[in-house]
Amino acid sequence: MTLLLISPDYASHLLPLATLGTAWAEAGERVVVATGPATDAIVRRFGFEREDLRLGRGSNPGVIRAEDQPRGEDQALRGFFEATRLGAVPTLAFQAAARGDDLLWEPLRVAREVQELVDRVRPDQVIVDHLAFSARLGLTGAQVPHADVVLGHPSALTVGDEVYGYPPAWPNRLQPSPRALDALRRQCEGVRDAFTEQWNTVLATLDPGADASHDAFAETGDVLLLNYPEDLHAPERTALLPRHAFLGSTVRSETPDREVDAWLARDDAPIVYVSLGTFLSVRSDVLARVAEALRGLEVRVALAAGSTSPDEMGPIPPSWLVRGELPQVTVLGRAALAVSHGGNNSVTEAMAAGVPLLLLPLSTDQFTGAAAIEAAGLGTALDPNAATPAQLQTAVEHLLALAPDASARLSQLSLDLTRNPGPRRARVALAGQDDTAGGSRAGLLEAGGADHGRR
């Protein structure tokens, strides 16, 4: 059996996708990853085959820097970083304006390449990143059965009257004005309509008999996989989802790191892990305020500085571990608290480790994810642009002394996520897809005809 994984050339997307593939690899099956060259080392680290597929202009092998991006993408990235300094709504508005080119990049060419890739690899099962819309068009237009996985908060797939790019929920301390939100929603509605029109135009070229979409952001594959714990998702929203499976968390295995392992074993002081992810570590001002807050506490700090120089964060206590990148899963396994921007990998991996969160959301689905963590009582969110070191310190102290009932809920969630990990859940979900289609390879090939349904 062959599993094909289709991922953008970004580490934050590929890592959880590749981790899903380990369930197939452990069963002795072939795993092929279609992605760009920047993340080739990650594919090789997992021991998978790689097929070259570029789904956008940009790339991110682990820490993104504007100067490493191609012309045009570098300016877009700098514009995004500057928007985060202006606040939540300006950031979301900036992202909405760029959405068509970002998420539906050269759609007809990419769709054709994906169809050729499927013909060449002849996979039995296909899992594609939900946000790889151009690739999904290729699969949909050729009637190739596939699963798409939402790697962010489930709100990345709109349901009901939701509009993509407009958060359906906000954390308590981040409440934009109604006027600003009205303007943002109108903008997102316009983007949705234009995006859907482009989706339908390409789909009609690929498959003239296909039904037009009313909202391309609400489209999904034959099986919807959600890289998120169901316990943190509102039941009323779950009821609106199409056929789906919650994966919980796709926690990956990491290569042992002697320096980190020695540091973790050094003493018993509470460990606080700090990371703003592969993109937003550029916000040195936020990291500097977090560092100032933590310097006043009896904790040890493991800080993934990313693209921020340690010199920009003030004095670094000798007990701290500060590096550009850290093995996040390993550190979370020993941490008492994590301070994060609220990216979905950070949130789900912290939940799997039973670690409460201080969240500083800056973009996309991070606001909705932070609201869910607050609603569950498993963390606190502050405004990254406004929180003072004193406020950050107070929040850290509160979370280090998490109430017993919240601590018990977090421990139970951690147990549930680790007892039945995401890769296993994904494999079970796709086995159900095969049963529906009438078998694995036969089901995929026969469902779309001998040439995968291409017309």
TrEMBL record:
InterPro entries the UniProt entry points to: Glycosyltransferase_28, UDP_glucos_trans
Keywords, comma-separated and alphabetical: Transferase
GO MF annotation terms: UDP-glycosyltransferase activity
Lineage: superkingdom: Bacteria
Chain spans, region Disordered: 431-455
GO BP annotation list: antibiotic biosynthetic process
Protein name: Glycosyltransferase
Organism: Pedococcus bigeumensis
